[in-house]
């Protein structure tokens, strides 16, 4: 097919544009309104980021607290006498501890 034989593409023929807002010469499109709206959206996005950052920090603090609690529990379990450890193992296995 030669370039002069190219048929018009249907999506390019009969394009209709729909005007959502009519132009009002008494109140032309205001750049200041655009800037205010853009600034408002940026502030809202920043506020949402700040809320998310605070939520993340609180979650991290809770996780650090849980970790400290686990370490205290572990330390408490590690610092027992051999006899106490033997009693605990015997109790977990269902055995009756003997007196020494």
Concise synopsis of the structure shown:
This protein is mainly alpha-helical and 100 residues long. Helices cover 60% and strands 0% of the residues.
Largest sheet: none
Please write the string of helix (H) and strand (E) elements: HH
Rounded to the nearest angstrom, the radius of gyration is 37 Å
SS elements, strand count: 0
**How many angstroms separate the termini?**
104 Å
Low-confidence stretches: none
Beta percentage is under 5%
Q: How many DSSP helices?
A: 2
> Average pLDDT value?
79
Helicity, as a percent range: 55-70%
Structural class: mainly alpha
Assembly level = single chain
> Which geometry do the CA atoms define?
elongated
Overview of this protein structure:
There is one protein chain. The model has no long low-confidence stretch (mean pLDDT 79). The chain has helices at residues 31-78, 82-93. The protein has two helices and no strands. The protein is 60% helix and 0% strand. With 100 residues, it is an all-alpha fold. The longest helix has 48 residues, at 31-78.
Tags for this entry?
100 residues; mainly alpha
Q: Layout of SSEs?
A:
Layout: H1 31-78, H2 82-93
